[in-house]
Amino acid sequence: MEIRVYPIFEKDFNFTQESSGEFLGKHYEELEDIAEKLDIEPLSFFDSINHNEEMMKAFENYEGDTDPQEIIDAIPHTESWFEPAEGIETMDALIEYLQKDSFKNKEMAKGVIEDLADLKNILELALKKDIGFQLKME
Description:
By secondary structure, this protein is mainly alpha-helical. Helix content is 51%, strand content 7%.
């Protein structure tokens, strides 16, 4: 089963996601590394679970002896919504980097760029409507 990255929104609004987001899921760690290299917010920044201080504390001394999902389920979750403009900045920077210095596999880079461009287009619609977003992986 392929992991995919997709947006969710603070309020309902209609949008069409053209790409599956599977290239983002498949190359998530590489994109995180590129974001760090570029000193921009990584995709993981836009997942509210990464902003939960309780989550960070719970995993501080994690040694792998418990199912991580049990730890996550036991933590109170507060939602964080992000400004689409912030996400657009990340998408633009990643697209620009990949177009210049793409992955070794050009076909793969094309798929990642298409996923990023599709996500950027959706975030531009959300920006016009002033609707916060999060990124999820599934």
